[in-house]
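Fold sample X.
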Amino acid sequence: MTDSANETASSQGRTPLVALRDIRVTFGGIHAVDGVSIDLYPGEVVALVGGNGAGKSTLMHTLAGAHQADSGAIIIDGMPVPIHNPRDARQYGIEVIYQKLALADNLDAADNVFLGRELRTRTGALDDPAMASATAKVLKRLNPMFKNLKTPVKSLSGGQRQSVAIARAVHFNARILIMDEPTAALGPAETGQVRDLITQLKAEGIGIFLISHDIHDVFDLADRISVMLQGKLVGTVKKDEVTKDEVLAMIILGKLPGEVSASKLAELHN
């Protein structure tokens, strides 16, 4: 079941948006990521889960260009690519939506979407109307209920702030999103907004790596789940083919579905 998800998708003739192959990252002799291979397909959410120190964030930082892999390959659309820094990653359509969102709280949605990549008129002045129009267009596509274009983002709800962060990535042609705990500290209504955003992104063919500690979020949002433990990949499973207890056993025990008895699964809750 662990590799069957990848094999099934591959047998259908699809090329992954991203194929991470045998990625290894060491820090001071410690194997933070030890030979991990994961695929991500268009319109798919792959949740990356594991306890603290499992290596999931380091793996995603490597894809995003924040860390260098010691060995292994990053393959985009079937071609190995060099990613040495975040600028390289963005050139391949890879964007990160950080848990803290990296928004400028005193600025409105358009100013945040174009922060550092502002549009200018022929005279060199900021083209505020063009930026506002482009922002309204992408936000309408992602979140039709978004109305607060002129409001400083510090006054927006958590779900609306996620909309702005995602709009910034999507407007600049992101095809691969890394989302770090996207519903952390959000209430039920705001979590629902983020779930709707992810559904829209999937419909547009965008692939999403979802880093999460919340097993409920994982089962609500992901198509497949990749579990890491101590830098290694325990396995990748289809969400619809496993139970939450089986995923917990992968996270805690490093055991694949079918390798743990029902009584042992029950002990995870004790």
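Fold sample Y, listed below.
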Amino acid sequence: MGTQSLEDRTAVVTGSTSGIGLGVARALAASGANILLNGFGAKAQIDKLVADLKAQYEVKVGYSAADMSKPVDVAAMVAQATRELGRVDILVNNAGIQHTAPVEEFPVEKWDAVIAINLSAAFHAIRAALPQMKSRNWGRIINIASAHGLVASTQKVAYVAAKHGVLGMTKVVALETATTGITCNAICPGWVLTPLVQKQIDDRAADQRIPVERAKTELLSEKQPSLEFATPEEIGAATLFLCSEGAAQIRGIALPVDGGWTAQ
């Protein structure tokens, strides 16, 4: 991991105070990139995370409390990274929320929130970061989409629509930057054991009055043929590969890390 291949690069990772985003931030920091974290959490917890990452990886680490549902906040986050860390070379759009309900019962405000955070925030961040990437003729834009960017499930209309939208946006950005040193790709995780997914497992166990382990197995067996969760570390490794020179001609793809989910 510590190849220092991303030394002197700076990465912004949204939704990176826990889960997949933190896994990605750690992987990038381990390769020498300076990091701007973003996400929710208690101040003491975030301060500790920033200090730990600085100490462990010997890189610069900043933090933005930007609310991804607010375009002004998203633009300010990119500006903050540029001001405090010098530049933005790598942008990982990871922040996401979930809500489940049948279409006709889906609350309008939940639809708006999921689209804002899972889709529009990525657009606003890309729009803000692209000019400086173009000025240096190098950049890596990685959108953390989902297996739900490629296939659908019931009860998740906003999430599935947003993630499909992310893949469309990824392709457009890839085409618009095709003759440059900037690439734009998406990673499509299946079930990853994060706090968000753990909550779904706990809810299922409570609703069906079954043990948590059984709820976990049932969740996986419905979608993920490997019957194993992907890990934040694996998503981090995929991100590192897409940042590498070896991935210079990988443009506009959706890379599933999903235990076979979308192969079915």
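Sample Y note: The helical segments are 19-30, 43-57, 71-85, 108-136, 157-176, 195-208, 212-223, 232-243.
Also: The beta strands are 10-13, 34-38, 61-64, 90-93, 139-144, 182-189, 254-257.
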